[in-house]
Design a protein that fits this description.
By secondary structure, the chain is α/β, with parallel strands linked by helices. It is about 30% helix and about 25% strand. The chain has one domain. An 8-stranded mixed sheet has the order 5-4-3-1-6-11-12-14, sandwiched between helices. A 4-stranded mixed sheet has the order 16-17-18-20, with helices on both faces. Strands 9-8-10 form a 3-stranded antiparallel sheet, with no helix packed on it. Strand 4, helix 2 and strand 5 form a beta-alpha-beta unit. The chain is globular. The N and C termini lie far apart (about 45 Å).
């Protein structure tokens, strides 16, 4: 059962808001004009007891290790403004972000197309949309008459908070200087797909598995960073860090932002307790933190999470000491709506999926069978063609940010970086929408979990890449 909010603003309205009459939203910015930057954060933690996202089981939250936040950075140059919001969530539906962006635009005057809302992909946040949530929600209502786990309308609450944080960030706009750069961080991320001795590709085959031959893909060691400093301030007051590794390092039933929390805490120790640390997830649909070449070591809970966050923070801190300031900023934005072909579920597949859901908590049901059932029910709610938005933001002649929906395979992000005409291109996934994985054509042929879970047809990732590269070229030549 979908909440009333879910359908409040249809996809058509989003398309109208984004693309009515122009690809380049807002007046042209004057190159070199002074920048103003504002930042803010708001708490988006649901009540304890709410269902948690991340796995194909029903998990109820039992506490809060660290509160979940939405963090916004608004950048203004002349009449043009852009807003980037990072949320400690596994993802969200297009309807939620559409409502939030439209509402924020009305309150701030920032064009909808210049607002991006991304998720850090934390697996210790709430489950508030999608077929799995609907199944658990409907089952609870059948048992109890209502759903005792959903004491709040979380999608409506989230829309309010997302609009609020953008309004607050805009209210804190002040003269500022921007720094951007990229560091390298090895040993934190690993491709989780491996060629095995049987000639097949396997997802997460386990540490020291003797049947592993080699990884099926690369990693991306780049730590992209953006720092904002007041005109006469020695320390930055806000920043964006981008890194590609799944935000699934802690597990359990306590709410947590995962390693992004420890990244924030380490940066606040260095830059001050009020520093706003926004985290953007790089393209990591096939990456995680597990090194299969090492024997698993039992560590205290959150130790590995803190190690990753701390290492990323140290990279930012070290690089911040030599980051040049943007001497000639030139803020601009481009976006495009891409009509992506989706797989289609047959009536027979839908019927089989519903039957599988009836035994979803049965541990004897194969994991991939459950995955396929959830995918099928999700596809049944969508059409054969689905709109996906690609956004690109230019900060200066050397720096651009690309924002993509879904969980994108790392190869696709690397292609964008290599093809980009900008010296520094930060690529962020799970922006504005998350209809599951977008594998490469190569990965579709290889199969395994991410392919089973994908909604798109083969070639969708390459369409998104081509669109991003085209937009980057337009911004470079503008």
């Amino acid at each position: 059962m979908r909440t009333a909010l879910t359908g409040a603003i249809p996809v058509l309205l989003l398309i109208v808001c984004l693309f009515a009459g122009c690809q380049q939203a807002g007046p042209r910015a004057s190159s070199g004009a002074a920048l103003r930057v504002g930042s803010a954060e708001v708490d988006i933690t649901p009540p304890v007891g709410y269902r948690m996202a991340g796995y194909f089981v029903e998990r109820l939250s039992t506490g809060i290790h660290d509160p979940l936040h939405a963090k916004a950075i608004v950048i203004q140059q002349g009449p043009r403004q852009v807003a980037l919001v990072a949320c400690d969530l596994i993802g969200f539906s297009l309807n939620v972000t559409t409502n939030a962006r439209v509402r924020a635009s009305k309150l701030t005057g920032i064009p909808v197309s210049n607002i991006v809302i991304c998720a850090t992909h934390s697996h210790t946040g709430p489950l508030f949309d999608g077929p799995l949530r609907e199944y658990f929600h409907d089952a609870a209502r059948q048992r109890h008459g209502d759903d005792p786990q959903e004491k709040v309308d979380y999608p409506a609450f989230l829309v309010d908070r997302l609009a609020q944080v953008i309004v607050e960030a805009q209210a804190h706009l002040r003269p500022a200087r921007l720094q951007a750069g990229v560091a390298k961080q090895e040993g934190l991320s690993f491709n989780r797909r491996y060629w095995m001795k049987n000639g097949q590709v396997q997802f997460n085959p386990g540490p020291l598995n003797p049947d592993i031959v080699r990884p099926a893909g690369p990693i991306d060691p780049d730590v992209g960073m953006l720092l904002a400093r007041g005109k006469d301030e020695q320390q930055p007051f806000a920043g964006l860090t981008v890194f590609a590794v799944h935000s699934d390092t802690v597990g359990g039933t306590e709410y947590s932002a995962d390693y992004a929390y420890f990244l924030q805490q380490a940066l606040r120790r260095e830059f001050g307790k009020d520093f706003i640390s926004a985290f953007g997830l790089g393209t990591c649909g096939d990456l995680n933190h597990i090194n299969v070449n090492e024997k698993p070591v039992t560590r205290p809970k959150f130790a590995e999470t803190e190690r990753i966050g701390g290492a990323l923070a140290q990279g930012v801190i070290d690089r911040s000491k030599s980051l040049p300031f943007m001497s000639n900023p030139s803020l601009a934005a481009r976006n495009a709506s891409v009509q992506v072909p989706f797989q289609q579920a047959t009536p027979e597949q839908v019927a089989a999926a519903r039957k599988t859901m009836e035994s979803f908590n049965d541990t004897n049901v194969d994991f991939l069978v459950k995955v396929a059932a959830v995918r099928t029910l999700d596809l049944a709610e969508r059409g054969p063609i689905y709109p996906m938005e690609v956004q690109v933001f230019r900060l200066d002649a050397d720096t651009a940010i690309v924002c993509l929906p879904c969980e994108i395979f790392v190869d696709l992000g690397l292609v964008i970086k290599r093809a980009s005409p900008f010296k520094r291109t930060l690529v962020i996934e799970i922006c504005n929408d998350r209809p599951s994985y977008v594998p490469t054509l190569k990965a579709f042929a290889e199969g395994s979990y991410e392919v089973t879970n994908a909604r798109v047809k083969p070639g969708a990732g390459e369409i998104l890449v081509d669109t991003a590269v085209k937009l980057l070229g337009e911004l470079k030549s503008e």
